[in-house]
Design a protein that fits this description.
Layout: H1 28-43, H2 51-92, H3 98-105
């Protein structure tokens, strides 16, 4: 019976998969950013995607977020004006003057005009 012995190399190659990117950093700022990254990757299961899939998914999220913000800042002020007009119509049954709303809310002065502090 012959025995064959395996020799162990002096320096082992790095373990695969390499988990250096998921190790907790030492600095406080690094830990903060690392936690945000880990939360983001675990929420959207980015750890299971390949790099090109991650880039594509983050790009889609960024474009949708920019479109949402554009819609809020560009169209929301006009929509609020339209909603105010509709509310006045539903409350008083006609397209009323804005002073009716101020009177109903009790924000007018003694002479029926708006107070200077609220202009």
């Amino acid at each position: 019976m012959s025995s064959s012995s395996a020799t162990v190399p002096a320096k082992l190659p790095p373990a695969k998969p390499d988990h250096r990117s998921t190790r907790r950093p030492k600095s406080a700022l690094g830990v903060f950013l690392w936690r945000r990254r880990m939360w983001f990757e675990s929420t959207f299961v980015l750890s299971m995607l390949e790099p090109w899939e991650k880039i594509m998914l983050v790009t889609i999220f960024a474009v949708l977020f920019i479109l949402l913000l554009t819609g809020l800042f560009k169209y929301m002020p006009h929509h609020l004006v339209v909603m105010r007009r509709r509310a006045m119509y539903y409350l008083w049954g006609q397209e009323g003057d804005a002073r009716l709303l101020w009177q109903w809310l009790g924000l007018t002065g003694e002479n029926g005009l708006q107070r200077k502090s609220e202009l």
